[in-house]
Amino acid sequence: GGDKERKHPPSRPSSSTAPTCPIAPQPHTPAKGARITMRKSGLSWLAATALLTAASAGPGIGHEAHAQVPASAWTPHINLPDSEAHRLAEYQLAVAEARAILAEFAAAHGWSAAEQAISCDTIEIYPSQAALWFRRQQMLGAPGSAYSAPLPSPRFAALFSPPLIRALTPEAFAAIAPDYAAQERSWARLIAHELAHGLQAELLGGDTTRRGPRWFSEGFAGYAAGQNFDAGIRFASASEALTAARDNPPPDAYRRYIAAFRYFADRVPLDDLLQRAGDPGFEDWLGELDEAGE
Question: How far apart, in whole angstroms, are the C-alpha atoms of residue 127 and residue 174?
Answer without folding.
Answer: 12
